[in-house]
């Protein structure tokens, strides 16, 4: 057992768990935070674009009345109006219409309001 411990003590082929490991881990964590923040922003942008595309679907319809030998039906018409935030197109690299991503800061000492 003593030989095994002395062999481990003299072994220099391993990874030194010291400031090198702390430095590498810190750089990796900072890189992950920046990368995940970019992913979050792009996912929000794409979901906003999907919502904008769905809101631009025209749901208007119309059909003519039909008259037969003993009965008749009246026609109908529905025109889809623009919603309050419908825009023809969002400008490139801009937040989607009606999508507010930022929240105002709360006053100091005030926490989030719990659900009731």
Report a brief summary of the structure:
This protein has 116 residues and is mainly alpha-helical. Helices cover 40% and strands 9% of the residues.
Q: What descriptors fit this protein?
A:
two-stranded antiparallel sheet; mainly alpha; 2 helices; 40% helix; 116 residues; elongated
Mean pLDDT: 77
Query: Could you give the distance between the termini?
Result: 64 Å
The secondary-structure element order is: HHEEEE
Largest pleated sheet: 2 strands, antiparallel
- How many extended strands? 4
Describe what you observe in this structure.
- There is one protein chain.
- The protein is mostly helical and 116 residues long.
- It contains 2 helices and 4 strands; from the N terminus they run ααββββ.
- It has helices at 2-10, 19-55, and strands at 61-63, 66-67, 72-73, 76-78.
- The strands form 2 sheets. It has a two-stranded antiparallel ribbon. A two-stranded antiparallel ribbon has the order 2-3.
- A hairpin with a 4-residue loop joins β2 and β3.
- It starts with a helix and ends in a 38-residue tail after the last strand.
């Amino acid at each position: 057992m003593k030989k095994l411990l002395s062999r481990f003590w003299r072994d220099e082929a391993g990874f030194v768990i010291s400031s090198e490991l702390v430095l590498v881990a810190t750089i990796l964590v900072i890189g992950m935070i920046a990368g995940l923040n970019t992913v979050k922003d792009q996912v929000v942008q794409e979901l906003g674009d999907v919502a904008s595309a769905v809101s631009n679907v025209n749901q208007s319809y119309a059909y003519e009345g039909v008259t037969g030998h003993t009965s008749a039906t009246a026609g109908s018409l529905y025109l889809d109006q623009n919603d309050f935030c419908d825009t023809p197109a969002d400008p490139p690299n801009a937040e989607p219409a009606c999508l507010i991503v930022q929240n105002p800061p709360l006053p100091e000492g005030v926490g989030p309001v719990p659900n009731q």
